[in-house]
Design goal:
single chain, Rossmann fold, three-stranded mixed beta sheet, 12 strands, 26% helix, binds glutamine, lyase, PdxT/SNO_CS
Length: 193
């Protein structure tokens, strides 16, 4: 069983642990570098990216996570996790930093206060049928994709809300909140490939 970490500093850690466990992975809560060193893949949960960034620096995890990503660790980020994987962000707060790895520009809270939260059925060709029930909560969008990054899903208006690059994957939405497990399956496929 692959050991897959969930960065457990803040956010919806439990939901990811539940899906990973249901898929047969050994889910490991990652709060320190020694725990990170034991995992073959990592999930960055939803939550508040600026808080996760601050805590990651305080816990001495920022540099080890950046090195792990550069070394090819498979990582899946949802919502705040997408922000943390982006090489560039728009509308960060407080000198917010990211781990980076995805050659994209991501805008935080891209849907404004009028539509804080919504759900949509999304076509994700890489996952096949049926469409993904996607839960968006103060969600980011991918504003620009660099040449290495690939869009996995777009909203009807064309905005990119799921992206992949090498062993990295990120979604603006929360599959872990609608019982959707195919993104986590894809992560495990990459981990065990
Ligand atoms: N708005 C949050 C942020 O900027 C993300 C929200 C979420 O993860 N649901 O980090």
């Amino acid at each position: 069983n692959p050991r897959v970490g969930v960065l457990a500093l803040q956010g919806d850690v439990r939901e990811h642990v539940r899906i990973l466990t249901a898929l047969g992975a050994e889910a490991v809560l990652v709060r320190r570098p020694a725990e990170l060193a034991t995992v073959a893949g990592l999930v960055l949960p939803g939550g508040e990216s600026s808080v996760i960034d601050k805590l990651a620096r305080a816990f001495g995890l920022r540099v080890p996570i950046r090195e792990a990503i550069a070394g090819g660790l498979p990582v899946y980020g949802t919502c705040a996790g997408m922000i943390l994987l982006a090489d560039r962000i728009v509308d960060g707060i407080d000198g917010q930093q990211t781990f980076g790895g995805l050659d994209v520009t991501v805008r935080r809270n891209a849907f404004g206060s009028q539509v804080d939260s919504f759900e949509a059925d999304l076509d994700v060709p890489a996952l096949g049928d049926p469409p993904v029930r996607a839960v968006f909560i103060r969600a980011p969008v991918v504003e620009k994709l660099g040449p290495g990054a690939e869009a996995l899903a777009t909203l009807a208006d064309g905005r990119v809300v799921a992206v992949a690059q090498g062993r990295l994957m990120a979604t603006s939405f929360h599959p872990e909140m609608s019982g959707e497990d195919r993104f986590h399956r894809r992560l495990l496929d990459i981990v065990t490939a």
